[in-house]
Amino acid sequence: MVASGTRPPRDPRIEAIAAALPPPPHHVSTLAQPLWLDAAAALWRASREAIPEGPPPSAWLPFFLHTHAAALDPAIPVTLDQLLWLAAPGDAVLLSDGATHHASSIASLDAAGTVTLHGNPARTLSAAEFTSRLIAVATLDTPALLERFLDAHPAARGNHRLPLAFGNALMCCQRDSLAPAAAAWFDQSLFAALLATSDEREHIAAQLYCALTIAMHRARPQPETLAAKPFADRLYRLMLDHTEAALQRRLSAAQLLRMAASASWSREFVRAGQLFSLVLHREPAHPHALQLRAAAAFHKRCYDEAIEDSLQGLESASHAYAAALN
Length: 326
Known about the structure:
The protein is of the alpha+beta class. The protein contains 14 helices and seven strands. The chain has a domain at about 1-155.
């Protein structure tokens, strides 16, 4: 596989994974979600003997033409020239002739811009055809690609919504190891949004709060570690400008649940219980929140609470299962 003419090549370990992935499903909305992470993980486990150190933290990053990205989350809105800069072998692409959309992946891309797409049979598009039909690229790479993207397109740095989209894309991968990188992008977005409305700034601050919380807990497997201190310090400064309650109201139940789970992972069970309770205040029958709050209560030796939440969680899960069968 040959990288595109302008985009920096991927880490060779990620390149090997991208080369072995199957073509994407033929569904437009899937390009706005992390693609094939399970398949990539399985391929990586199978290849550990060849490269035992494991892949660097990576993510599927979905870039859409700005004219199509508004209704998609976590789409990263870019121009056509920027999409063409990104496109590389192994990437998923979304092509459109104005009437129909077609999802495929790039098998090869030569210096003249001629693109060969995976398929049976494979399909070749001239540079002009590819340019006229391309509306999205989803690429597997490390978060460093985002900084390289801005280095190549410095005019985009002044737009506070772009780093916000970068952070959202990383967080939507549901990989807590990417939370520090996402927090850095949210921080950049908040700084660049000095002239934005207070409502928009609080929205960005809430995303930063979520990412910092997860990053802090992931860096704190033991209470004495100092790895979490930069995230804790930034959270403290953020709380000087925003109340925690206001930021929490901006977050979805899924985000609060993820924060609570990260607190449990770092064995901060009191904090985890508080966050699980916020989730349950919004969704009282949430089975995962009930079961996880039960586990946190057990670790706090609050056994009556643990039993009560466990029983409610089992009942809620059984109702959900019965509803799914019907």
